[in-house]
Specification:
The complex is a heterodimer of chains A (431) and B (286). With 431 residues, chain A is an alpha/beta fold. Chain A has 19 helices and 17 strands. Chain B is built from eleven helices and no strands. Classes of the chains: A alpha/beta (431), B mainly alpha (286). The complex binds adenosine-5'-triphosphate and magnesium ion (MG).
Chain lengths: 431, 286
């Protein structure tokens, strides 16, 4: 793949109006002036389907669009390949503004770059499973032999081998959706668009399909845009999630940001049911102000800082903030008593490290296996933050409902931290 | 003074229509000859083929079609029995001639009606023009169609086929239009999303999914053609219709009853068989 972080699809202020005959410009101006959806509908008789939606989707990313019924999700995802013509704004796919393309140009994009999976499957009922799976290749004019091969491969991947010659009506909902998926996969798209693909399925089949899809997505190296109103689905599959209300995108965030830091009450009510801890990563738990000192600093001042922050280890970093080691309170205090300076040598340990995206369940063993804080570093070893046992517990504590009336019910985390870090230990160090 | 409608504001449409027809005949005579030649060829070949078939084979064919279409032993026996009845009345040959005219008329109706129906489905403007024409055509008394057919093509089987087509084609156009317009949007959207051209959508999605409705149109057209064939015998169509006409002229109710019964029998046979195939197809795609 060319560039992992390249933007593959970008929406710039995309709006879609319904019933806007004759007053398009007026409504667009009202939108720019911030007039609400209901007011526009009442006064101008125009329905605002999508309202100045802007976002970027990167290559390989899994982007989720979420929102209540009627919030404009389907309208938005359909405008992306102009199944619904956007009224305003630009949609850039692979560097090309597709809103300016001719019918023919648009067809080329649909044939070569995108594939869509529909909520109601959108299968051709008079064609067999195999013929449905190969339909995208057929419009492209791929030879009979090649498209049979590819479609067969896709059918095998979605687990429908043996059903090739059946008509869709002979299949269950879950199987029909797999046919839809096979049709998309055989198309070999850069971008996969999915409008509530799992919502027609019963809960057990839905979970199963979601898991299978998560696996496929990784294997196939896809860039995916998924519309859903199932929070668990969004959190499980999404790299980033956009929340829509009344046609507007009101927050775009990673699952953990969304859960720990909702933009407003609407988003908060959306993510209410989610347990934040499940989606936390090192970044959302860590302190981004780690305690550091340089080789050659005075031990005395390091002791001061540690006392002040009640953290009983200090990271030793170089000029580029690269972690070189970690020193314990006892060592530094001993140095301070003899009026010395910090230096890389005896008493300096290799810190336990993780990166900022390490999920919380992988953090537990790391944090528990060292008496020092865990250093959060980027791939060059630069220190970005630190995680103490205390921080981990506090992050989890936010996820538990305390009885607000009774302050005693909240455990005294700070006290326990001091205690544990003063215990002598047989330290396990890792690199 | 209001007992007499004033002559001064009378419109003389009839001379204009007559003028128009003779103008068309003068200027496009070659075209009409060509159309007549094509229809005559189709008709003669069909008739030859059908009358060449030995009658046991025809009965076998009807039984086979009835069985594959309905999968019902009762239907198979009844439909074949109706054909036997026609033979027993002594109208086998005439029924075959009528059948040939009907097949030709339905074939031509299909060739003309399908494209017009597709056009009406794909363009609201075309629909707005075609729809009132169809409404008008269907309220027109069937006899009226005989006149222009007679004028342009004279007496005989060719104008009979043409009058029959004119009379029978509207339901096919109407139902083709309806069938295509009511194809589920989701299938069309899916095809569009995968880059299908309008032509591919028509071929791969709209026509196949509209087919049950189109077949219902063909069925209706066939029934109307059968009704028209009786009337068209007035301008020279041979077959069962002519028998009815003769019976009327000679005031022979028995003969008319027999011939009429044969027409009904023919109608039932054709209807059941085409309907059966339509239902089967519908079943398979839903
Ligand atoms: N063809 C249309 N004409 C008029 N209004 C429309 C049309 N299509 C959609 N809308 C309106 O646009 C808004 C967004 O609809 P959309 O279908 O995109 O919602 P959604 O988020 O996909 O909802 P759901 O979760 O129910 O699928 C709604 O207010 C809807 O009424
Ligand atoms: Mg929707």
């Amino acid at each position: 793949m060319a560039d992992e972080n390249a933007v593959l699809l970008e929406c710039r202020k995309v709006s879609k109006l319904f019933n806007d005959e004759g007053n398009t410009q007026q409504v667009l101006k009202a939108i720019r002036d911030g007039v609400g959806k209901d007011e526009i509908q009442e006064k101008l008789g125009t329905v605002v389907g999508v309202r100045e939606a802007s976002f970027k989707v990167h290559r390989g990313e899994f982007f989720v669009i979420m929102g209540l019924s009627g919030s404009g999700k389907s309208t938005l995802i359909r405008t992306l390949i102009r199944l619904i013509e956007p009224t305003d704004g630009e949609i850039i796919i692979d560097g090309e503004d597709i809103t300016k393309l001719s019918e023919d140009g648009m067809r080329k994009v649909r044939r070569n770059k995108v594939a869509m999976v529909f909520q109601h499957y959108g299968l051709l009922p008079h064609k067999t499973v195999l013929e449905n799976a190969e339909y995208g290749l057929k419009t492209r004019g791929i030879s009979w032999k090649e498209r049979r091969e590819k479609a067969q491969g896709a059918i095998d991947r979605v687990g429908l081998s043996g059903w090739e010659s059946y008509r869709p009506s002979a299949l269950s909902g879950g199987m029909q959706q797999r046919v839809g998926l096979a049709r998309a996969l055989s198309h070999d798209p850069d971008i996969l668009l999915m409008d509530e693909p799992f919502s027609g399925l019963d809960p057990i089949v839905r979970r199963q399909m979601q898991q299978e899809f998560g696996r496929l997505q990784n294997e196939e190296d896809l860039t995916t845009i998924l519309v859903t109103h199932d929070l668990d689905e969004a959190l499980m599959l999404g790299d980033r999630i956009a929340i829509m209300r009344d046609g507007e995108i009101i927050q775009i965030a990673t699952p953990d940001q969304l859960v720990t830091n909702p933009a407003d009450d609407y988003v908060a009510s959306f993510v209410e049911g989610a347990s934040p801890a499940r989606f936390m990563v090192a970044r959302s738990v860590m302190s981004d102000d780690p305690l550091t000192a340089r080789d050659g600093d005075s031990a005395e001042s390091a002791v001061e800082m540690m006392r002040e922050r009640k953290i009983w280890s200090t990271f030793i970093v170089d000029g580029g903030n690269k972690v070189q080691g970690v020193m314990s309170w006892e060592t530094i205090q001993r140095l301070a008593q003899s009026g010395g300076t910090l230096h890389l040598g005896t008493g300096v340990r290799k810190p336990v490290t993780c990166d900022s995206e390490t999920p919380i369940d992988e953090l537990f063993p790391l944090v528990l296996n060292t008496r020092h804080p865990v250093a959060v570093v980027d791939d060059r070893g630069t220190l970005q933050g630190m995680i103490t046992k205390n921080m981990l517990l506090e992050a989890l504590a936010h996820d538990i409902d305390y009885d607000e009336e009774d302050p005693e019910s909240k455990p005294d985390l700070v006290a326990s931290e001091v205690e544990t870090s003063n215990q002598p230990s047989n330290e396990v160090t890792s690199v | 003074m209001f007992n007499e409608f004033p002559e001064t504001i009378e419109i003389d449409l009839r001379t204009r229509v007559n003028d128009a027809i003779s103008w068309l005949l003068d200027n496009f005579g070659g075209l009409f000859d060509f159309i007549a030649a094509v229809i005559r060829t189709v008709l003669l070949n069909l008739e030859d083929a059908i009358t060449w078939l030995p009658w046991p084979l025809v009965l076998g064919l009807i039984a086979l079609l009835a069985w594959t279409a309905t999968r019902s032993p009762l239907n198979t026996v009844v439909l074949t029995g109706l054909m036997v009845m026609i033979g027993m009345f002594g109208y086998y040959d005439l029924a075959m001639i009528t059948l040939a005219i009907i097949i030709a008329a339905v074939l031509i109706s299909f060739i003309i009606g399908l494209p017009i129906g597709i056009l009406a489905a794909q363009s609201d403007k075309a629909d707005a023009v075609i729809r009132p024409l169809l409404d008008g055509a269907q309220t027109m008394p069937a006899f009226v169609y005989l006149i222009p057919a007679l004028m342009f093509f004279g007496l005989g089987r060719v104008p009979a086929v043409i009058a029959t087509v004119t009379y029978a084609v509207p339901p096919l156009i109407r139902l083709t239009n309806l069938g295509i317009r009511t194809v589920t949007q989701s299938a069309i959207e899916a095809a569009t999303a995968y880059g299908a051209t309008p032509r591919q959508i028509l071929r791969d999605v709209q026509l196949p999914l509209a087919l049950p409705t189109i077949m219902a149109g063909v069925n209706q057209t066939t029934m109307m053609a059968l009704a028209m064939v009786v009337i068209a015998s007035m301008i020279g169509a041979e077959g069962l219709g002519q028998e009815v006409l003769l019976a009327i002229n000679r005031i022979d109710p028995g003969r008319g009853f027999e011939a009429g019964l044969c027409i009904v029998a023919l109608a039932v046979i054709i209807d059941r068989i085409t309907q059966g195939f339509a239902d089967q197809y519908k079943e398979s795609i839903s």
